[in-house]
Design brief:
nine-stranded mixed beta sheet, mainly beta
């Protein structure tokens, strides 16, 4: 496999020979990283997690224990995947074809989940592909995401719906005089037509 300096792969992990593992990344017990997967620098793959064929992870991603990241998922830098999360890849899942024959890899077309920079997926949430999770957004634990999530959105429920906004720290934003404010960083945001945009210091 293609590994860079400082990579840690424990003996019980199953990592394909042609997977690419970035510098400083760690792959823990019983995790599986499939053929052609690409992990950026400083990624952490937890116990029993699954990274599918050709899945890509940016730098500084964390995939917690027993999460299932099916191909062709694409994760940007700084994405957090909580324990037991599932990123699906089959819009119409069936074990067999209409004639009763067992489906093969050629009998269906995989679709992926795209997760933008800094987003977090809470424990045991399910993201039903095809779907995009916006930058710095948060999917609450146990949610089922069936449609795209805007940047900075906080979504929860089955199916997941937006219940608020979050900042880059992950804390829920507070509204004051039409401006959304992060209680941790004091960053300011404005909502326009269902989209949240971060304001510059001089705005």
């Amino acid at each position: 496999m293609n590994t860079s300096p400082g990579v840690r792969i424990v003996d019980s992990a199953d990592v394909a020979d042609d997977a690419s593992i970035g510098a400083g990344s760690s792959i823990w017990h019983l995790a599986q990283v499939r053929e052609g997967a690409v992990l950026g620098e400083n990624c952490v793959i937890g116990r029993g997690a699954y990274i599918g064929t050709g899945v890509t992870l940016g730098d500084n991603c964390k995939v917690q224990n027993y999460a299932l990241v099916y191909e062709p998922a694409a994760l940007a830098d700084g994405v957090f995947i909580g324990p037991g999360v599932v990123l699906t890849n089959d819009t119409y899942p069936r074990a067999v074809n209409p004639d009763g024959s067992l489906k093969s890899a050629h009998d269906w077309e995989s679709v992926g989940v795209e997760i933008a920079m800094g987003a977090s997926i809470g424990a045991r949430a399910v993201c039903v592909a095809p779907v995009r999770i916006g930058a710095w957004s948060t999917v609450a634990a146990g949610s089922v995401v069936t449609r795209d999530v805007p940047d900075f959105a906080l979504v929860a429920g089955v199916p997941a719906r937006r219940i608020g906004w979050v900042g880059r720290s992950g804390r829920r934003l507070v509204e004051a005089d039409g401006v959304w404010i992060c209680p941790d960083t004091n960053a300011r945001y404005v909502e326009r037509d269902g989209t949240l945009m971060e304001l510059n210091d001089d705005e």
